[in-house]
């Protein structure tokens, strides 16, 4: 995919950078999906459909507003566009939403959606309401290549990057479900976004960036970059670009402070080690005391939860002078997981040790456990079913043999 490069110096004779159209694949019905397109992409899509450039520019502006500010999915509601033009648009384009396969609500109010893409890939998103905020946990990939040993998504086989439309589509769908159109600055339920669903966002950098740009655009969904957090397992070479080109808050899945343990539970550590990762955090553009980096630390019984681990974590944060806070996540078990969660008093003691060193270390309350919506439990139903099918097949085979 090509993107217009930002021009930093004026080039005589060139007024505007010439945008390169994204390779837009029509859907099976021949129409092109406009969801996920930037203003420039929208304009190019209209021009490619033979709309005259001046018209294309005007229509793109109107469409963009209808799509991202008003949440429109139907051209007929776009009353400032002439009726025959609406018809023309409807023949060629759609504004889609991800297909909802299943929507579940937890006893604690957490909601989980299982979504399906046009090519039949399943992914999940979760909405976590709190008294003072509402956080949407967004997926960046179907499955994940990282294979963190404690993470359920890591056991999925199939991996593909989600497109910008599929990523921003999760936010649009949540807004639909919460009835939050048109986009308003006050009184929203959906206030925060965390890129902590399925997948590694920094392995899908371009699409995540393009989607988050749409989410942050003040005329559209208008979520502030201060209310968006991108979580990475530590893809060191992409961290500086994330800070420069996206500029959202950074969370890092640290989870261990020795090479041995981190190599085991976050295998990416064999490629980018702890010290390298912490240096990249120290260099992260925009991190300061007002905007701290969050270190996520999953509490695994007898694996990473000793007093020494907490103290070493403090030492490392100090060594790299990191404006940091620590988020302790009680391990959320899933069927067949090779670990157990640390005991509550161990977690409390671990948190205390870090607090005593002057670093905030709250324990994250698990949410939506009853609907398998808690951190690291996301895994598509299709996969779960095929697993169940496999088990059934195995049982049948056993019965036949026995
Ligand atoms: N790939 C990114 C974002 C997705 S995971 C990353 O690794 O940060 C979001 C967070 O959930 C990560 O901190 C991850 O380590 C954590 N997590 C995964 N499985 C978990 C589980 N079973 N229990 C608790 N936290 C888990």
Automatic annotation (TrEMBL):
Localization in the cell: Cytoplasm
EC class (word): transferase
This protein's UniProt keywords: 4Fe-4S, Cytoplasm, Disulfide bond, Iron, Iron-sulfur, Metal-binding, Methyltransferase, rRNA processing, S-adenosyl-L-methionine, Transferase, tRNA processing
Textual note on the cofactor: Binds 1 [4Fe-4S] cluster. The cluster is coordinated with 3 cysteines and an exchangeable S-adenosyl-L-methionine.
Residues annotated to bind S-adenosyl-L-methionine: 199-200, 231, 253-255, 332
Radical SAM core domain residues: 130-370
MF annotations from Gene Ontology: 4 iron, 4 sulfur cluster binding; metal ion binding; rRNA (adenine(2503)-C2-)-methyltransferase activity; rRNA binding; tRNA (adenine(37)-C2)-methyltransferase activity; tRNA binding
Keyword field contains Repressor: no
Protein residues bound to [4Fe-4S] cluster: 144, 148, 151
Cofactor: [4Fe-4S] cluster
Keyword Transferase in record: yes
GO cellular component terms given for this protein: cytoplasm
Catalytic activity: adenosine(2503) in 23S rRNA + 2 reduced [2Fe-2S]-[ferredoxin] + 2 S-adenosyl-L-methionine = 2-methyladenosine(2503) in 23S rRNA + 5'-deoxyadenosine + L-methionine + 2 oxidized [2Fe-2S]-[ferredoxin] + S-adenosyl-L-homocysteine; adenosine(37) in tRNA + 2 reduced [2Fe-2S]-[ferredoxin] + 2 S-adenosyl-L-methionine = 2-methyladenosine(37) in tRNA + 5'-deoxyadenosine + L-methionine + 2 oxidized [2Fe-2S]-[ferredoxin] + S-adenosyl-L-homocysteine
Enzyme nomenclature, EC number: 2.1.1.192
BP GO terms, sorted: rRNA base methylation; tRNA methylation
Active site: 124, 375
CDD domains according to UniProt: Radical_SAM
Additional remark text: Reaction proceeds by a ping-pong mechanism involving intermediate methylation of a conserved cysteine residue.
Function: Specifically methylates position 2 of adenine 2503 in 23S rRNA and position 2 of adenine 37 in tRNAs. m2A2503 modification seems to play a crucial role in the proofreading step occurring at the peptidyl transferase center and thus would serve to optimize ribosomal fidelity.
Family under the similarity heading: Belongs to the radical SAM superfamily. RlmN family.
HAMAP family listed in its UniProt record: RNA_methyltr_RlmN (MF_01849)
This protein's name: Dual-specificity RNA methyltransferase RlmN
């Amino acid at each position: 995919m090509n993107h217009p490069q930002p021009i930093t110096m004026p080039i005589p004779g060139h007024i505007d950078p010439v945008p390169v159209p994204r390779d837009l694949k029509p859907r099976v019905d021949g129409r092109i999906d406009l969801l996920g397109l930037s203003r420039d992409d929208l304009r190019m899509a209209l021009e490619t459909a033979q709309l005259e450039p001046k018209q294309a520019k005007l229509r793109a502006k109107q469409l963009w507003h209808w799509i991202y500010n008003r949440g429109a999915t139907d051209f007929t509601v776009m009353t400032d566009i002439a009726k025959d033009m609406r018809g023309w648009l409807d023949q060629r384009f759609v504004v889609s939403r991800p297909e909802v396969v299943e929507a579940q609500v937890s006893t604690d109010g957490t909601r989980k959606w299982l979504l399906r893409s046009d090519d039949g890939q399943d992914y999940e998103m979760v909405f976590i309401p709190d008294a003072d905020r509402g956080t949407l946990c967004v997926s960046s990939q179907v499955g994940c290549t990282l294979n963190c040993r404690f993470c359920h998504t890591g056991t999925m086989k199939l991996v593909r990057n989600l497109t910008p439309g599929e990523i921003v589509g999760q936010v649009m769908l949540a807004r639909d479900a919460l009835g939050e159109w048109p986009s308003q600055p006050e009184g929203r339920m959906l206030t925060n976004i965390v890129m902590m669903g399925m997948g590694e966002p920094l392995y899908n950098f371009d699409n995540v960036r393009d989607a988050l740009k749409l989410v942050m655009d003040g005329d559209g969904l208008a979520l502030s970059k201060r209310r968006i957090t991108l979580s990475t397992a530590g893809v060191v070479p992409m961290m500086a670009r994330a800070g420069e080109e996206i500029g959202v808050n950074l969370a890092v899945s640290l989870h261990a402070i020795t090479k041995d343990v981190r190599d085991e539970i976050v295998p990416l550590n064999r490629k980018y080690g702890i010290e390298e990762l912490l240096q990249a955090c120290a260099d992260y553009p925009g991190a300061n005391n007002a905007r701290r980096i969050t270190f996520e630390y999953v509490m695994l019984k007898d694996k990473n939860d000793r007093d020494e681990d907490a103290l070493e974590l403090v030492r490392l944060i100090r060594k790299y002078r990191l404006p940091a806070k620590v988020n302790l996540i009680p391990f959320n078990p899933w069927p067949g997981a090779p670990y157990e969660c640390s005991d509550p008093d161990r977690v409390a003691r671990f948190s205390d040790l870090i607090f005593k060193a002057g670093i905030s270390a709250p324990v994250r309350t698990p949410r939506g456990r009853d609907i398998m919506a808690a951190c690291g439990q996301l895994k598509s139903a299709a996969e779960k079913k095929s697993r169940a099918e496999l088990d059934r097949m195995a049982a049948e085979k056993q019965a036949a043999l026995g």
